[in-house]
Amino acid sequence: MVSRSQQSLSVLVSSTVAFTICFAIWMMFAVIGIPLKASLGLNETQFGLLVATPVLSGSLVRLPLGMLTDKVGGRIVFFLLMLACVVPIWLIGEATKFSQFLLLGLFVGLAGGSFSVGIAYVARWFSKGRQGFVMGIFGAGNSGAALTKFVAPTLVVAYGWQMVPKVYAAAMLVTALLFWLLSYQDEGHKVDSSITVKHQLAALKDPRVWKYCQYYSIVFGGYVALALWMTKYYITEYGFDIKIAALLAACFSLPGGLLRAFGGWLSDRFGAHPVTWWVMLISWVCLFFMSYPQTDLVVKTVRGDMQLHVGLNWWMFTALLFVMGVSWAFGKASVFKYISEEYPHNIGVISGIVGLVGGLGGFILPIMFGALVDFTGVNSSVFMLLWGITLVSLIWMYWTEIVPRRSASGVARRVSDRPPQIEGSMT
Prior knowledge:
The chain has 427 residues and is mainly alpha-helical. The chain is built from 19 helices and two strands. It has a single domain (4-187, 203-406), classed as Growth Hormone, Chain: A, CATH 1.20.1250.20.
């Protein structure tokens, strides 16, 4: 007889591995999109659309999948979702037209919806005091983005880009079967059958949900967008080949995934708010420096013209990118710590909503990146956009969390400073 704790551990491990493979497949176009861009003659905006298409469908299904998970359980939903992606992944290797890649990308993108399924499935196997850490471990499956950057370039160079989707289709099938064998049915963890879709969607009226969506649109949506974009950025900005560019891009993707578990521990230890605040502040500073374009200046001096170059070299840029990846790993965990604390009974729905909006950020941002580069011709304009989005999050958090906390503490301090009241009167 397998104990409850052993079942919980098995669910956590099998779900995390499955999510890692799903995320690696979700990010597939970040690598194979580069040879496709050349062979199909795509501009920057079209490239952004190509790599972002799987993110669109993966984001849109997060809410219905989260609701379905609350209703019927995460194990069966996760398993069937993975099986449904196998054939579309394989067919990508047979596609020849831009429209075919976009259509198949929508089906492959369903793999990205696995997050809202797995996060709700895993969280319910553990106590509230451990959920931040556990959800962080599961969310470390984001490191699948780095896995793609290690595996896919090697396959592209050795066998051509067509081999990547075929290998990934086989990996998805094997992962789905192993997940079913190693996981357990989450009976007793579903919402009451009397809870309707209308009741579940009532969460959309809660302004706090939209605030968490804003936070997640940068720490996750921005993460997905840069995971898709950075390989090409290193090629165009610094002139690296695809293997070196993918390796350097993994300096962002890998910590952005693996350290999410530590971010969950920090959120359990110190709370969701302080972790998220520092994440946004550090990201804002990093993005400020990364936004500055490569600039050549000519300074007129008494001795003649003096040439100056201002801009980040590749190792300084990579260091800032690494710091931001670490920060966003913590932020992805801390946002879901907010959710597990404030919405314990409908975590599937809330995580679906937040995941949907965050994922849509991962879809819209690469397209905006491409449009900005086409319009301005400046590669670093993508970081200017992210800097502005981060600033919005900081302002929103300040006025809705920090100001009320200070007001409440001020009132409590004034009350405690009052002299004790003496009942009755002296005669």
